[in-house]
Amino acid sequence: MVEEIGIVTKTEGVTAKVIVQKKGTCEGCAMKGACETTEGGMEIEALNPVQAKVGQTVKLSINPSTYLKGTILIYGVPVIALIAGAIIGKNIGDEYLKGASSDLVAAVAGFGSLLISFLLIKVWTLKAETKTENKPVIEEIISQ
Fold it and tell me: Fewest CB within 10 angstroms: 21, 53, 102, 144, which?
């Protein structure tokens, strides 16, 4: 489990908002849309089974598979889409568009598929944010 320490800023039913220190790895996280940057760090919505209250310091855990999926989604899918689009575009340019530069067709197809992958990632991220299994969990209260 990936663990973080933070301070509860707000409670809402079964969830709580927790401020944790922002790290470089936050930029690649698929769930970064669930976080809000504040002066003190990142505000994350987490499940609160221990009933932590505002002002308490808590330990959060994040499922490593969620983190890994996010990393693959953010970095792997766009690269694959760019390369596959360029290869397909090159073949289409060579085969069907004899008057056009096949390199230009490859570039347009590659960047077009890259943009489409970003849109699909955004849709997936919005859907993933609503699932409770993707949310961090407050494991314990460290101090009052």
Answer: 144
